[in-house]
């Protein structure tokens, strides 16, 4: 079985990636080692994977499979993830808690980290740079397609 964070973009607008950590934690959890693996939080911030394109817009680099907590920069918000499953597809909804952001302060955003119950990043979504603030809504709906042989 090989899972994938589904992406319909050609990589110019956004890229998503499940990390090596996701697979090792799922395997450990399946055999009762290191506790249960739970999909719990989304962290909003930036990463050096998204860079300005000199001709306009933003370039998104491939997300390394060893992306770690330290590589998420300028974290400014966290949300609880809403997860559902249908067949072999896990749907994940991450909504910016914009009401909790301070008044009159804007935050650069280009990276959403998916985090497990141990506080470690297991998946990453990078998108075109945006500015988020109180009063501006942002929701990402992602799916993990669990491939069955």
Summarize the structure in words.
The chain is mainly beta and 149 residues long. The chain is 7% helix and 50% strand. The protein has one domain. The protein has one helix at 20-30; strands spanning 3-5, 14-18, 39-46, 50-52, 58-60, 73-80, 82-86, 89-95, 106-116, 121-133, 139-146. Strands 2-10-9-3-6 form a five-stranded antiparallel beta sheet. The chain has a four-stranded antiparallel beta sheet with strand order 1-11-8-7, with no helix packed on it. The protein has a two-stranded antiparallel ribbon with strand order 4-5. It is globular and about 45 Å long. The termini are close together. The relative contact order is 0.29. The mean pLDDT is 94.
How many beta-strand runs?
11
Q: Could you say which overall geometry the principal axes of the C-alpha atoms support?
A: globular
Radius of gyration, Cα only, in angstroms?
A: 15 Å
Structural class based on helices, strands and sheet pairing: mainly beta
Q: Tell me the fraction of residues in β-strands, as a range.
A: over 45%
Side-by-side strand order of the widest sheet:
2-10-9-3-6
Helix percentage range: under 10%
Helices and strands, in N-to-C order? EEHEEEEEEEEE
Counting DSSP H or I runs of 4 or more residues, the number of helices is 1
Mean pLDDT: 94
Distance between the termini: 6 Å
Largest sheet: 5 strands, antiparallel
The overall number of domains is: 1
Low-confidence stretches: none
Protein name: Phage tail protein
Organism: Xenorhabdus bovienii (Xenorhabdus nematophila subsp. bovienii)
């Amino acid at each position: 079985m090989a899972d994938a964070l589904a992406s319909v973009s050609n990589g110019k607008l956004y890229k998503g990636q499940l990390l090596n950590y996701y697979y090792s934690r799922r395997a450990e959890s399946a055999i009762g080692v290191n506790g249960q693996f739970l999909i719990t939080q989304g962290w909003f911030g930036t990463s050096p994977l998204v860079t300005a394109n000199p001709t306009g817009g933003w370039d998104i680099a491939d997300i390394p499979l060893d992306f770690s907590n330290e590589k998420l920069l300028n974290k400014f918000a966290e949300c609880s993830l809403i997860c559902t499953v249908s067949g072999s597809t896990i749907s994940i909804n991450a909504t910016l808690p914009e009401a909790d952001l301070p008044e009159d302060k804007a935050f650069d955003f280009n990276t959403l980290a998916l985090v497990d119950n141990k506080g470690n990043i297991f998946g990453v979504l990078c998108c075109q740079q945006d500015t988020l603030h109180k009063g501006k809504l942002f929701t990402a709906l992602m799916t993990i397609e669990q491939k069955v042989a």
